[in-house]
Specification:
single chain, alpha/beta, TIM Barrel, 8-stranded parallel beta sheet, 8 strands, 42% helix
């Protein structure tokens, strides 16, 4: 991996942790990683814990991220959160297009694209998720599926494409305990970089950071994170235990 692509490890806590539990977890992680600067570390708690976790990690190198947002800046969208609201809570990052959002809530690539543009306009860094299901992989459709998701989710960004983090998450490896082999993950990450070059240019594609997001844990983190096109991890289950998350971050060096 080129030296100018700094590794990034983000913890996606999903719909877990009460405010008190989120504070305790953030405190544990802070004790170990408060001054860790070799890797970008991001915590993405549920909306209800953003303020609490943000207060814990204030004045550290750890950054706050959200798990979703609406594309509109304000309005009659009951239950939604805007990019400006996230910025008001000192969020730096926002996860967009996660496979669970796509599968359970019907989010399309076009909807993700609108959110990405809104996030960038609010100076948030989007972590844009792409990846294939088990049926699609077994049918040999991985490249077609991933190409379309990348092209459509990131359409029309121009030079701002370099600011986006992409997370490749093979859907069949999320929360299942299964994981893509390092070679399988590297193959798709390299392909995503080819797609980025095709829709922008080589310099932008080489600058873009691409995370792996499918059941990363300490046991497999090193082998995944030493692949040339894998620039970090979007960590789910293992991010809910401070010890496991910290170990993954340390394996990203």
């Amino acid at each position: 991996m080129p030296k100018f692509r700094k590794k990034i490890v983000a913890g996606n806590w999903k719909m877990n942790k009460s405010t008190a539990d989120a504070q305790a977890l953030a405190e544990e992680i802070k004790r170990e990683l408060a001054q860790h600067s070799e890797t970008d570390v991001v915590l993405c708690p549920p909306f209800t814990a953003l303020k609490t976790v943000g207060d814990v990690i204030a004045d550290t190198s750890i950054k706050l991220g959200a798990q979703n947002m609406h594309a509109e800046p304000e309005g009659a969208y009951t239950g939604e959160i805007s990019a400006n609201m996230l910025r008001d809570l000192y969020c730096w990052y926002v996860i967009l297009g996660h496979s669970e959002r796509r599968a359970l809530f019907g989010e399309t690539d076009e909807a993700v694209n609108r959110k990405v543009k809104a996030a960038l306009a609010a100076t948030l860094v989007p972590i844009v998720c792409v990846g294939e299901t088990l049926l699609e992989r077994d049918a040999g459709q991985t490249r077609d599926v991933v190409r379309k998701q990348v092209e459509r989710s990131l359409a029309g960004l121009g030079s701002e494409l370099a600011k986006v983090v992409i997370a490749y998450e093979p859907v069949w490896a999320i929360g299942t305990g299964r994981v893509a082999t390092p070679d399988q993950a590297q193959e798709v990450h390299a392909f995503i970089r080819e797609v980025l070059e095709a829709i922008s240019d080589r310099a932008t594609a080489q600058c873009a950071r691409i995370q792996y997001g499918g059941s990363m844990k300490p046991a497999n983190a090193h082998d995944l994170l030493t692949q040339p096109d894998i620039d970090g991890g979007l960590v789910g289950g293992a991010s809910l235990e401070a010890r496991l998350f910290v170990e993954i971050v340390r394996r990203a060096l």
